[in-house]
Design brief:
The protein has 133 residues and is mainly alpha-helical. It has helices spanning 23-26, 34-54, 77-90, 110-130, and strands spanning 61-65, 72-76, 107-108. Strands 2-1-3 form a three-stranded mixed sheet. Strand 1 (61-65) and strand 2 form a beta hairpin. The mean pLDDT is 83. It holds the Pfam family DUF5319. InterPro entries: DUF5319 (IPR035165). Residues 22-33 have a biased composition (Acidic residues).
Length: 133
């Protein structure tokens, strides 16, 4: 008598879970290069600024076009921060799935967030340039 359920895909070459066995092998992947690590640290720093500036306007996070599935993925601030920290510690991104029924009006792209932050910075420093002797 067997305690575990029988795998209905056992031996099936189209088993949708076949790639999961390879995850342990991927765990030994190479660490991030110093440049990659610096990029992730900069992204984390930028994310803090974007959240501070955009959250009060109702923005809940960022939308990223997935290179694998070519679909937009919506990440709230904490989830994106967690994913970036995971990338720093493990050297590989987390497995991801698109968010369930997100409201696209509450998410912006990295580029929009960067432009918004640059605009705020320019506005705040605009007066200080005029005051210089």
């Amino acid at each position: 008598m067997q305690d575990e359920p029988i795998d209905p895909f056992n031996g099936d070459p189209t088993d949708p879970a076949a790639g999961l066995d390879d995850l342990n092998e991927d765990a030994e992947s190479e660490p991030l290069t110093e440049d990659e690590r610096q990029d992730v640290l900069e992204d984390l720093s930028d994310l803090e600024i974007y959240q501070a500036l955009l959250s009060p306007t109702g923005i809940r996070g960022l939308v990223i076009e997935c290179e694998d599935c070519h679909e937009p993925h919506y990440f709230d601030w904490d989830l994106l921060r967690g994913n970036l920290r995971h990338l720093l510690s493990s050297g590989r991104p987390r497995v991801h799935e698109p968010a369930y029924d997100p409201d696209p009006d509450h998410y912006v792209t990295w580029e929009y967030a960067r432009g918004y932050a640059d605009g705020v910075h320019d506005t705040l420093t605009e007066g200080s340039d005029d005051e210089a002797p």
